[in-house]
Amino acid sequence: MALQPGVYSFAWSGGIFEVEFRANNSFWCRKFANAAKWEQQGAVVRIDWGKFGQYEMAVQPDGTLSGGVVGRPEDWRKAAFARAFTPSEELLSGSAWMLEYENGTPFRVEFHADGHFHSADYPGHHLWKLDGNTIAVDWGKFGQYDLVIDVSARQAAGSLRGNPASWRKLQYVEPLPAYIFKADSCGHDHH
Fold this sequence. Notes:
By secondary structure, the protein is mainly beta. The chain has one helix at 87-92; strands at 6-12, 15-21, 27-28, 37-41, 44-48, 54-59, 65-69, 72-83, 95-101, 107-111, 116-118, 126-131, 134-138, 144-150, 155-160, 163-175. Strand 11 (116-118) and strand 12 (126-131) form a beta hairpin. The protein is elongated, with a radius of gyration of 19 Å.
C-alpha cells in the first residue's frame, strides 16, 4: 500500500504532533523543523529526520504507520493520516513567486513552510497564513495583504487590506525546500 501524502498525527511516548509527508519525498514538521526526507520501499516507510533521528515504519492495512527508531524498535512511533493537502497548500507552502504591484518593478517573494514570508528586497520578520484559497500576508510596516490563489493558473491577486487600488499580483516561480536553514533579515534562524 502506497503512503498517501498529506498531514499526519505523529505519536510517540512524549506526545502527538503534526507532520507532513510531502511530494518529492520531503518530510516536514513545523514543531521539530529540520531538513528531512522520506522514502517507501514496499510496506516500509523510512524517515531521515536529521538531528531528530532515523525511523522505520510499516504501512498498516488501515493506512496508519507503526514502527520506531531504527535499531531501537522499543522507541516506538505511530502515524495516522489526518487530511490531504489542499491544492492551494501544495502550491503555496514552500514556494517562490514574482510579486507585481501598481507602481513598481516585479520582485521575488517566498512563502516558507514555517509560515514566514520573505523578500530580500523588503527585509524583516513577516508572516503568511492560508485560509482556503486566500493568503493573508502580514508584511509589518509594508502592510497587510489579502490575495486569492488561482491554483490552475499558478497566480494570485489581491490588494492591501481595505485598499483595492493598492493591488498585488503573484506569479509562481518555483518550489522551495520545506526546511530553509538560514539566519535572514528577520534576525533568526528558520528552524
